[in-house]
Write a structure and sequence with these properties.
It contains six helices and five strands; from the N terminus they run H-H-H-E-E-E-H-H-E-H-E. Strand 1 (83-89) and strand 2 form a beta hairpin. The protein is of the alpha+beta class. Helices cover 34% and strands 15% of the residues. It starts with a helix and ends with a strand. Strands 1-2-3 form a three-stranded antiparallel sheet, covered by helices on one side. It has a two-stranded parallel sheet with strand order 4-5. The longest helix is centred in the last third of the chain and has 17 residues, at 127-143. The chain has a domain at 75-179: Nucleotidyltransferase, domain 5 (2-Layer Sandwich), CATH 3.30.420.80. Pfam families: Ribosomal_L18p. One of its GO terms (molecular function) is 5S rRNA binding. Belongs to the universal ribosomal protein uL18 family.
């Protein structure tokens, strides 16, 4: 609509009005944002270098080399200690597994929901069940030639009670477990 109005010459204004309106429509319809002078407190003053998001004061520096800040130990621990222990305890059952970090394959698994273990236990989630899971998991790990593992508890888990019983049972039955507590 504005282009149509601007393209028609005005009778009273003559050629000057037509040129001014054409200049205005050129900026509006070119697809380019037309910005006025930047204000002292305007949003433009607080934009990032790439102008994509508002500036934050806790901005991290972009690293040129993303692997630079990772230590040698962090880069090589998956190969030096390839097996991890994962223990899951719920109100109804207990399960534990040894997983190879690099290939993500489970080497040995034991849980109180399996048929052979269910028959032996009175309860599937108490301390004796945890000790039985540790004993069976250590037997299956030795069959797979795994003698060392590392264990890092989840954020919500505390290393006490049932989890400690599973890990202690593994250690007592010949699996060397390195425990990493934060």
């Amino acid at each position: 609509m504005l282009k149509r109005v601007c393209s028609m010459p005005y009778m009273h204004g003559g050629e000057k009005t037509k040129i001014c309106l054409n200049a205005i429509t050129r900026h509006i319809h070119s697809g380019q944002p037309h910005s006025g002078p930047r204000s002292f407190f305007g949003v433009e003053d607080f934009l990032d270098d790439d102008n994509s998001r508002p500036y934050t004061y806790q901005k991290e520096k972009k690293s040129k080399n993303p692997n630079k800040h990772i230590s040698f130990k962090q880069r090589t621990i998956a190969y030096m200690e390839p097996f991890t222990l994962d223990v899951f305890i719920s109100k109804r059952f207990v399960s534990a597994s040894l997983t190879h970090r690099v290939t993500s394959k489970q080497v040995a698994v034991a849980g109180t929901n399996s048929k052979d273990i269910k028959a032996e236990l009175q309860s599937r989630s108490d301390i004796p069940a945890c000790l039985a899971i540790g004993r069976i998991l250590s037997q299956r790990a030795r069959e797979a030639d795994v003698y060392t593992a590392s264990y890092t508890p989840r954020e919500r888990d505390k290393f006490e009670g049932k989890i400690r019983a599973v890990v202690q049972s593994l250690i007592d039955n010949g699996i060397d477990v390195k425990i990493y507590l934060d």
